[in-house]
Every structure is written in structure tokens, then in C-alpha cells.
Amino acid sequence: MAGSFSILPLCMARIYDPCKSTLALRKRKRFLLSQLKVYPDALRASLVERFSRCGKANCRCHHGGPKHGPFYYLTQCLAVGKVNKFLLKSAAQQQSARAAIEHYRQLQEQLEELSQINTELLRREENLGHG
Ligand SMILES: [Zn+2]
What we know:
Helix content is about 35%, strand content about 20%. By secondary structure, it is of the alpha+beta class. The longest helix is centred in the last third of the chain and has 33 residues, at about 90-125. The chain binds zinc ion. Zinc ion (ZN) binds near residues 53, 54, 56, 59 and 61.
């Protein structure tokens, strides 16, 4: 389980290789369109892992001992400075969040590549309306 989560920088797009023939771009576009899948659980958010100190002053966590955790939080940026964040209490909830976030990420990646191909096709004065 450890290490399988990540904080995804959702504002940053991967840059796909535009140095392809128009034919190759169209072929890739057709492939992408055939692969596109919207999973019902798709969810845009990040999973963050936290260790924390508790409220008991005499607890080991206040005296050099290990902190409590890990605790997993779902964080979702809705607007600048507006973040939706809550604790994922159960292992099942954490697993659902991991899968849902990954499904959203996959879809976003596919759409981003499609968008970059369409941008390049537009630059080449190609028709965008078909595969
Ligand atoms: Zn403690």
C-alpha cells in the first residue's frame, strides 16, 4: 500500500511528441478515441498521507516517539484557495479513492493527448471533426 499514492499536479500537462506526420497523428487520434473510457467512479483529487501528534501531552508522540498514522486524506482543489479535504477513515474508503483518482487521471491524460493532437492538426489547417 505504501508508495501507491501520489500528489498529482493536475494543472501540469504532459507534452506529447508533435513531430509526427499528419497521417500518424490521425492514426493516434483514432486509437485514443477508441480507448477513451469514462469510469463511473472517476474523481479528480489527490490522496495525501499524514502522520500527526495526538492531544495527550504525555503520549510518546510528544516525547520523541513516532507520530500517529499514517492517516489518509482526500484533497480536492476547487478554486484558488478553496480546497475540499476530508479524512478517509476505512481501508475500503482509501482503496476506492485510489482507484477513482487513478481512473480520473487516465481519462485526463487521454483527453490531454487528444487535445494536443487536435491543436497540432488545427495548426496544420486540418479538419478536426473526424478521426
Ligand atoms: Zn500521541
